[in-house]
Design goal:
- The protein has 6 helices and 6 strands, in the order H-H-H-H-E-E-H-E-E-E-E-H.
- Strand 1 and strand 2 (47-50) form a beta hairpin.
- The chain has one domain.
- It is 27% helix and 28% strand.
- The protein has 143 residues and is an alpha+beta fold.
- It has helices at 6-11, 13-18, 20-25, 27-30, 51-59, 121-128; strands spanning 33-42, 47-50, 64-65, 86-94, 98-106, 111-116.
- It is globular.
- Strands 1, 2, 3, 4, 5 and 6 form a 6-stranded mixed beta sheet that branches.
Length: 143
C-alpha cells in the first residue's frame, strides 16, 4: 500500500481539491495512509489519520489555521493570513492540561513546521466527526 507524505500531497494539492468528493467516498482512496498524520491526545490512544480524514478536516476549515488566534504567540513566530494558512496534520498533547504541539504544512514557507496550539480539544472533536466510508475486506469463501 502506498504511503503518502505531506509534501507530496501539497505538491499535488489542486488534484486533491478537484477529486475530493471521489476520494472521501471510495474506501480504497480514503484509507490511504499519510506519513506522520495522527492525533495523540492524553488520556486516549493515538489515532491514525488517513488521506480522507485530512481532506475533510482541511476543506471543511477545521484543521486549517488562517490567523494566529489559535496559536500560542510566544511559541510561534509564523506569519499567517487567509492566503498563507497552516494545514494541521498531526496533533499531540493533553486535552485538559495544555502542552499541545502540532505539525502543519505552511503554505507561506512550503514546508512542515511545528507549532504550539492553545487547545487541541476542538481539533480532537472535529477529527472524530469525520465521516468515513466502510472499509470492505474480502471475505474468504465458506465451504
Amino acid at each position: 500500500m502506498t504511503i503518502l507524505n505531506i509534501q507530496s500531497i501539497f505538491s499535488n494539492f489542486s488534484f486533491y481539491q478537484d477529486h475530493y468528493l471521489e476520494i472521501i467516498q471510495d474506501s480504497a482512496q480514503y484509507y490511504t495512509p499519510v506519513e506522520h498524520a495522527f492525533l495523540n491526545t492524553f488520556p486516549f490512544k493515538q489515532q491514525a489519520l488517513y488521506l480522507g480524514d485530512l481532506l475533510q478536516l482541511w476543506f471543511g476549515n477545521k484543521w486549517k489555521i488562517q490567523n494566529a488566534n489559535n496559536l500560542l504567540a510566544q511559541k510561534n513566530i509564523l506569519t499567517l493570513d487567509r492566503d498563507s494558512p497552516l494545514y494541521l496534520f498531526q496533533l499531540g498533547g493533553e486535552l485538559f492540561l495544555g502542552a499541545n504541539t502540532a505539525l502543519a504544512w505552511s503554505v507561506a514557507e512550503q514546508k512542515v513546521v511545528t507549532v504550539q496550539v492553545k487547545s487541541i480539544w476542538q481539533y480532537a472533536v472535529f477529527s472524530h466527526l469525520c465521516i468515513r466510508p466502510k472499509l470492505f475486506k474480502q471475505n474468504k469463501a465458506i465451504a
